[in-house]
Request: fold
Amino acid sequence: MPIRDPALQTESQAGKTTGEHETQTLSGHEAALLEKYRIERAKRIRTEGLAQFRKSEGELAYFLEDPYARTPLQRAPMQNEVDVVIVGGGWSGMLTAIHLRQAGVKDIAIIESGGDFGGVWYWNRYPGCRCDVDSFIYMPLLEETGYMPTEKYAKSEEIRAHAQAIARQYDLYRHAVFQTRVTELRWDEEAARWIISTDRKDAIKSRFAFVGNGALNYPKLPGIPGIETFKGHSFHSSRWDYAYTGGDANGDLVNLKDRRVALIGTGSSGVQCVAPLSQWTKQLYVVQRTPAVVSIRGNKPTDPSWVSSLKAGWAKQRMANFDGILAGLVRDEDLVDDEWTDLWGPPPPPPAGADLSELAAFFQKIDIEKMDRVRARVDSIVKDPATAEALKPWYNRFCKRPTFNDDYLPAFNRPNVKLVDTQGRGLDRITENAIVFDGRSYEVDCIIYATGFDLLTTSHKAGGFEIFGRGGQTIDQKWAMAVRSLHGIYTHGFPNLLFVAGMRQGCPTVNFPYMTNEQAFHAAQVVKRLLQDNVRVMEVTPEAENRWCEIIAAKSKVNVEYIRACTPSFLNAEGDLSELPKQAFPTAYGGGPFEYIDILRNWRERGLLDDLHLVRE
Reply:
């Protein structure tokens, strides 16, 4: 997601303020806090950077196994040809398929590694799992399907059921190829087709290929020594083993009542599953490297009177309002009104006439004020002072994605819950029957890895496959120094290939489905036109890529120094400063979602033929 640089936002805002200019400087308390941030960050710098994590492969490949598929799929390899192959059956792939069908493109195959539609919501079924964004903007096609979420923050099973209902309504199941993992996309120059290979020995030819498998699908594991030696039970939170724990996403984990469990990770997934685990385990060890920002969720059931007051077009208006607020473009109305728009919303206008150093102090004061509120909440809930202190986040608010939960902090008041705060180091090692930190061994029966996903890598790598373009060049080879594309959707050297909802050179938003839908609609319209015009090969020109990279750089809101000062996270290559120039290379359109949507519309209406090299049948 884009990181907004306050100094870059203030030029237009400064003119909105009136009154006497007040000099902005940091107080002694605020300066001491920044020094605390620096010290805590230094504890967490790892020389290995991204290499500190392990992939779910080899002897750890079992972490990728699907525990949810009812029956293993048995079928012969496919050797067919289609107009479009879509990699991924989550929101990106589904919305792309829907817009393609509505554009008249029906010869489609959707290849999905899971056993059904849903993407991240197919995989994430851990107890306590909910959407952390307002359901009424997160769940797509609500008006089109006539569905209304039951709560402000819907549970995973409700979101998954909605995805499958969408697939039925839009007749997507006829196109689905489930329980199939893509292993390679390779451009066949002579045939002018993509050859899609899979782990089922398929070789599907496709005129166009869409990569829409998202960033949250490949489980990431910590590089803790001894992880493969543990003889107890272990699994990743995105492959929850209810056969072992008992119960379901609502709890009732009855099989854990006599078991000692270590939960490794306190990010979005870990924060949500701590409370249900605490209620059922004999002993729960919560292993933390860096505390999360845990703010108020304030969930509530859907109000029928509010629903009856809604007018046509409300869903898209609500989506745009939310992302407009977070982008600092909307101030007069907050339709969602939650902790996202409060904690991460735009700051008040700065003092008129302030210089850059005063502006920096002004925005830093606001940042500290909001984070002080988060830390004070920890003190107000957690009874043990040492545990409370360890759970406080010491960094600026844009350094990590915040979490929202009302049950996480109270769980640490239970006698069977112990926080193992590793001070950023991580565990020393794992043995056959225990986790070890700072010389102390904690015997456990089960280890659950709530360690997230391989988010920093490109989407195809997150899906476990490689893409070979002209002359056998891979995407990774082309993007070794920096991502180069047009609109984050097409890249030179890879004809007839489109990326939907990628994290780079597009305009990703906190509410993921909002921009995904816009990109999917745009890409479907482009392919519709190419098919109507009998285009055999479409390839973006290098000149168009260069212009887009210049626009990206000029519009960038990435504050490299802000990221550099952050605690290690996916935003700064886990603190690996040698990787930071590549990771922080301006890779997201900084003009905001509305400008980006206008750029896509204007381009497909007026600029498409100028920026593409086309070969017709």
Notes: Residues 405 and 432 are 33 Å apart (CA to CA). The chain has a mean pLDDT of 89. The chain has 22 helices and 22 strands. The longest strand covers residues 203-211.
